[in-house]
């Protein structure tokens, strides 16, 4: 894969836009000219690229409600491969401009189109597109870290390192790797023993005691409507993260995931490229298929040779029969106040030992909260009048009955307006649950410490862990209309 | 390069930069493709670096230089394919021996060189297994090397640079080797075996290159990739999965069974919505579904759904309001395609219902004050829905109703609605949905009982658009307008808001063009009259009065003509508006009132064939009134000179030109009217010129003659810049450049302006008088001699063609010709031409010595043409 140019732009909602870094590759441009022939479109000046890119991303002229060029309903920006409509002497369409944005950064690159440009080839025929996306994602991780919160100074110093990093990974526009996080590894001597080759993705060799860490995290999402006509939805996805410190150029490790006897099979499994081989049965189960009972349900063996840094060994989804917490939420509007009634019930199969568990009840598009006469059967209640938010802190445990309730009236008579949200008007309202349960998974999937095999001379120290967290866990008010969250219901 | 050689090895970064710079320079200057000496030396240097393994076991500083050298070699090979085809064995060896991470750049370089070398072989006639073997073994036979060069020459075209995997329709060049190509097979196996050790980016590139190689060599079965497939299909890396898709595209059912195909498609659906992948990866996979490489594609074209993608499977990709805009629209588009057939059947399925509900959900968010992004997304989704399902009346009608309701509460969405109407009309010419929407909007606006002044601007904008539709009756619009201007309904007229007034006038202007104008005449006239009288802004009053006058005095056809001009030119395209032209927003008046600039000249002036020029003031010359010319030369001269007491006497030069079209066919300019030609001088030898008017110029009719009256200060050759303003048949005014007009020296010659009654003799007398005068006095005057070789006949011909009118001596006297040329304002050139033994002598006398160089060059020109008569 080859890219013609690369840009890194910082912005705040279309304002304070500036190009922080850009690079063009002259030899690639030379190739682009001969490949495209008469349909060659030169890369315009930086400022022009910036303007066109912002228009295409819908970020230009943030203060204008309608701009024909930006908002035409006919034009559908085909993210992530945009087309820049260049005007003026070098008129033409610059395509495919790959752009990904996260937080304050927009990263963009223009891959070389190595098939005849007319008629426009499908995106899928250009390997450079997926490679470009990989490169941009790598750059993004390099610049912002894996966390989503960017830190200003870190960003500046990373940007300053970029020229020398690009010299390493992409000196002439054809990268063989993405920039690696952390300090550049000190070149290590190849192992004298044997002629085993060092993987290109392994920056060095580990010396010392072997330690293997396997962490299994499951996330549960849910949309509960409490409505007979609308099916409640929930899904679970899991990730196995490893950190392996094992000696050797190409050490072999095997991690095995196993399910309880009646567990439903793991689906949609994706593996890290360091996994050396896969059994075809591992890939067969998929969430878009009919589940049939005879499907392969483990054990799931993943042989691999680990890189030095922590990595995501595999991820999967799972269909569990019940949601961990079943809720019901009812709102009734009475004059200038609402009557609230909530029940939350923990399923008995779930370990009643939380790291934290909170229920948030936001009220949008109303005046600020006045009096809140709300009683809870268990836990504590925090009222944030400025934010029109009730926070119900359930703490570490549900009571023995595994059921908690909230009942009360809230009046909205404050002098100012509370927060607005276009989705949640009137009785369209939700409770959002935040919880984390250590040492359990919903699918029942686990990594047994003894099932981790490391084929090396020294006996390794092996640690495994697992946890369940919630994400987008909504319980909608059953007396109002709730938005549709999945097309599966249409079948 | 010498800097590099002399640079100490420890300056690693500097040495790397040097290599990169050299590579860039050599490639961009085409030195590499031209095989220049410098590029050969550089290639040798790079190869030397990559072969040097001495340092690798010490501190490894050479390693990054070596990696950079590999990058440089790869770029050279990429830009100039085949460059390294003779070095394959060397590269393979280096790659195999290298155990540090350096094996990766070597693998990348080796596969690229291998792919290019095999491609080259496919282009050679008669190349086969033997050649392939030789290539891989590094054995180069002399005969083949010669071939190689010619191959390179042919490869100037860019085909070799391009990817070979074009899908089932693409044709891949092949190399017939028979089943026996062990060497290649072992190279491929070795590369594939170690592909696991490469980074995903490099691995994907390698697989892609090897796919191309196997596609070109039918002797190698695609099954060679099979061992890698499971690992690749399970990967979380987009580029690795993508390279597998490209493999499927290249090998179809020779590597992938129908079952594999179904599995891959399912896998793509899973990946397009996998919670662990990033948005852009999911969007990319969505796109891949629309271009899924099927083993047996039914149709090829943009965005066709794979047969295996059932509505059931696709339901996993249904859009929801929780999606981001790009995902939402991509999914919406995909689902529309999936349910397209459903819509065509009488029984509409649940899928379509779902899409409509989704659109409604979006609309509610917009209604509740969704962000700008949501608004734009909603209108895009609405367009997609209409594009695919406008024929499903139940939904399209309900969408119209919902949009009207939305508009009432959010009038500032008017530009979006207009845009939606415009685009559906453009893209779906057979559908009348847009007209339906506009009619409904008109109904909604005109039945408003409580007018919010803030909304008025949007209402008027919408009504302008509604008035563009000839099919929509406009009576209700008019009654709305008349209500708006009544004080009981709104205080618009009293406020005198200029912009709102313009909005009103814009609707009126549109109505003037409406086909049902006849029935609208009276109410429209009333409104305009009211505006002209009562609106508290003079400008608006003036314009209202103008429209009123136009409406009441012009016939329908003329009115349409006046209003339509320009409207046809730039109806919707004219989006740029300055405040000053806001008045006539693309409605023709601006067009009519501005002067447009033509791109190139439309016509030119060419010199007309003409008789010698004479001051024609005293043209009414009467034979009977013969005045006796003074016999004596001096006396004649004096009488002649006395005429110049009148400063205007014989001071002008009239040149005739033909005005004619330049042969560029632009039918707009076939008929031109009121042409006004403007000339400007390039020097100060002449007085300023007056503009010239020409009534008309038609392409098909004889071209009119233009008389250019020049008043010389000094009769020198000159060039005039010219331009013109013309009116075309459609009433537009154009400014156009006219090619320069060159005035040659000989064009300034005139007959002697002697009194017309004098006759030949008189002029001869003046000649003699002047000659003496010039010979005797110095000052401005000068005499000179010009000689040339001319035969007698040639001389006679010369005099006849160029000087006959100026001849003052007896024409029968061939011994000596006397010529007298007058050049305004008051210069003379006198010539005595006589044949001497050796040459023809042109004795020259002039009263302005500054003319001598011009005379010289003129004589040179005309005598030269006589010397070498065209044979």
From TrEMBL, chain A:
InterPro entries (alphabetical): AP2_Mu_C_sf (IPR036168), AP5M1 (IPR039591), MHD (IPR028565)
This entry carries the following GO cellular component terms, namely:
AP-type membrane coat adaptor complex; cytosol; late endosome membrane; lysosomal membrane
**What does the record say about its membrane topology?**
Peripheral membrane protein
Q: Does the keyword Repeat apply?
A: no
Pfam families assigned: Adap_comp_sub (PF00928)
Q: Which positions make up the signal peptide?
A: none
SUPFAM superfamilies in the record: Second domain of Mu2 adaptin subunit (ap50) of ap2 adaptor
- Span of domain MHD: 209-476
Cellular localisation: Cytoplasm, Cytosol; Late endosome membrane; Lysosome membrane
Q: Which domain of life is it from?
A: Eukaryota
GO BP terms in the entry: endosomal transport; protein transport
Alphabetical UniProt keywords: Cytoplasm, Endosome, Lysosome, Membrane, Protein transport, Transport
Primary localization: cytoplasm
Q: Which PANTHER family has this protein been placed in?
A: AP-5 COMPLEX SUBUNIT MU-1
Quaternary structure and partners? Probably part of the adaptor protein complex 5 (AP-5) a tetramer composed of AP5B1, AP5M1, AP5S1 and AP5Z1.
So what family is this one in? Belongs to the adaptor complexes medium subunit family.
Return the protein name. Answer: AP-5 complex subunit mu-1
Tell me what gene encodes this. ap5m1
UniProtKB/TrEMBL annotation, chain B:
Q: What is this protein called?
A: AP-5 complex subunit beta-1
Write down the superkingdom of origin: Eukaryota
Q: Which SUPFAM superfamilies match?
A: ARM repeat (SSF48371)
Q: Which residues form the AP5B1 C-terminal domain?
A: 766-862
> What region holds the AP5B1 middle domain?
180-559
Q: Where is the AP-5 complex subunit beta-1 beta-barrel domain?
A: 671-741
Provenance organism:
Stegastes partitus
Which gene name does the record give?
Answer: ap5b1
In this chain the AP-5 complex subunit beta-1 N-terminal domain maps to 1-26
Pfam families the record matches: AP5B1_barrel, AP5B1_C, AP5B1_middle, AP5B1_N
Please list which residues make up the signal peptide.
1-34
- Keyword rRNA-binding among record annotations: no
